[in-house]
Amino acid sequence: MLGVTPGANESPSAAPNGRVIVPTADQLGAVTFNADGLVPAIAQCAETGEVLMMAWMNAESLAMTFAEGRMVYWSRSRSELWRKGDTSGDRQFVQSARYDCDGDTLLFTVIQEGRGACHTGERSCFYREFGAR
């Protein structure tokens, strides 16, 4: 896990229960961005383990997430930074951050505020299931 410290020096947009993360240069160097400069980031509920969503991060959004203790993504459709919850109120507060063995996928445990992570109003973006029951 990347180094985590309490969010005493968080920016005003961060929450008291978010965590500021101070990664080492080696940890940051292990992150592999794709040809578009992006890496997939999974947000998982810290309390239940439920996978809430997957979105993309660039180097800037990753640095902002670490510094603020709030999830910041890169919107491919809008080509802009997207601080989760700034318009919806459904903010995500970082509890921990990990990267996979290849460094090409990130996993954040978060506290989800508001109705949920999905823009549809669902708690998780993964509310639809394949197959008949």
3D architecture notes:
The protein is mainly beta. The chain has a single domain, classed as Roll (Ubiquitin-like (UB roll)). It contains two helices and eight strands; from the N terminus they run E-E-H-E-E-H-E-E-E-E. It has a four-stranded mixed sheet with strand order 4-3-8-7, covered by helices on one side. The N and C termini lie far apart (38 Å).
Short structural description:
With 133 residues, the chain is mainly beta. Helices cover 11% and strands 32% of the residues.
Task: Set down the secondary structure blueprint.
Layout: E1 4-6, E2 19-21, H1 25-29, E3 39-45, E4 51-57, H2 59-68, E5 72-75, E6 80-83, E7 92-99, E8 106-112
Parallel strand pairs: 3-8
Antiparallel strand pairs: 1-2, 3-4, 5-6, 7-8
Search tags:
globular, Ubiquitin-like (UB roll), 133 residues, four-stranded mixed sheet, mainly beta, single chain
Number of strands: 8
Which CATH C-level class is it? Alpha Beta
From the alpha carbons, calculate the radius of gyration and give it in angstroms: 14 Å
Helicity level, as a percent range? 10-25%
Specify the biggest β-sheet.
Answer: 4 strands, mixed
CATH-scheme architecture:
Roll
CATH topology: Ubiquitin-like (UB roll)
Strand order of the largest sheet: 4-3-8-7
Number of domains: 1
Count of helical regions: 2
**The named CATH superfamily:** Phosphoribosyl-AMP cyclohydrolase
